[in-house]
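Standup notes
- DV: blocked on the single-chain target, sequence here:
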Amino acid sequence: MVTTRAGRLDDAGAVARLWTAANLARHAEIGLPLGPVAGEGVVGAEHLIHCRLADPAALAVLAHDEGDLVAMALVLQALDRDGASSDPLPGLAHIAMVAVCPDRWGQGLAALVLGVAQHDARQRGFTHAQLWTHETNHRAQRLYERLGWVVSGRAMIDDYGEAIRHYVRAL
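- DV (later): unblocked, structure below
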């Protein structure tokens, strides 16, 4: 049975392994190079996630099935200039990461953690949310659009050279 709970700082390693596995599987599925994710593979991802979870404003939702981490979503306070500034954008939550164990894709787990994350963000006073996803991640795009997310029209290249598109929604 799948259950959800809030993520903690000591979950950074497990979350990094899940996020890296999901990204490598996405790369393999569409024929992208299988180079390091987050700059340095799991080590880089764990450092990034640890820093994000250390932020008191961060909200992580983890889904477990019989003790195994199978999905996660990470919500942060949105910052001006797409995070290049330290100035918060009042009322705007930023969905920074969503990942599902590759052998569990298509089982509704991303929708589950996103739903809980959106609810919890509303409870914290956020009124809107944003996220970015890769142009090549059609599975995620279908999910977001089915869940009411709308393409904003913004696009850019991420830190690793991949095109990404911006989604928004009211909470």
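- Follow-up: The longest helix spans residues 12-30.
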